[in-house]
Specification:
Layout lengths: L7 E9 L2 E7 L1 E2 L1 H11 L8 E5 L15 E6 L6 E3 L2 E8 L6 E9 L7 E12 L5 E9 L1
Antiparallel strand pairs: 1-2, 1-10, 3-9, 4-5, 4-8, 6-7, 7-10, 8-9
């Protein structure tokens, strides 16, 4: 009998003013796995946005939104960039955008609402009005 487990894992890196301030793993949520299955069938739109928030509840498989979304921006490259069995999503928040005590992030397929692919919660990053923040998020399918 042949048995193979397909897994999706991810890791993100947060850069604030050209300095890496956070590297952490994420949780690909149930809705995200369902989105992948539908995408394989040719339905669903590509992931297009990343959001940051101030929620502190642990990421859970049943999450469909951030705990407390503060801001959402378009991805640098809509749909991400594929290389082998990984896809990289990147997003930048310019000065004065996405400010506050940021403790969570997620990837979505819409400018508001939409399907969430993944969510992570991390130690607080204080993004001020002069700060430029970039998040690079790699999802690996293995």
């Amino acid at each position: 009998m042949f048995h193979e487990d397909l897994k999706m894992t991810g890791q993100l890196k947060i850069i604030l003013n050209d300095e890496v301030v956070q590297e952490t793993n994420n949780l690909v949520v149930t809705a995200g796995k369902e989105w992948v299955a539908d995408r394989m069938k040719g339905t669903n739109s590509a992931m297009s946005h990343m959001a940051v928030g101030s929620g502190s509840a642990a990421a859970a498989a049943g999450n469909t939104a951030l705990g407390n979304e503060l801001d959402r921006n378009s991805l640098t490259t809509a749909g991400g960039t594929v290389s082998g069995n990984t896809i990289t999503f990147a997003c930048t928040w310019g000065a004065g955008d996405g400010t506050g005590a940021i403790t969570e992030a997620g990837i979505f397929d819409a400018a508001s609402g939409g399907d969430m692919l993944a969510r992570t919660v991390f130690s607080v990053i204080n993004a001020g009005s002069e700060d430029i923040m970039t998040i690079s998020w790699v999802v690996t399918i293995s």
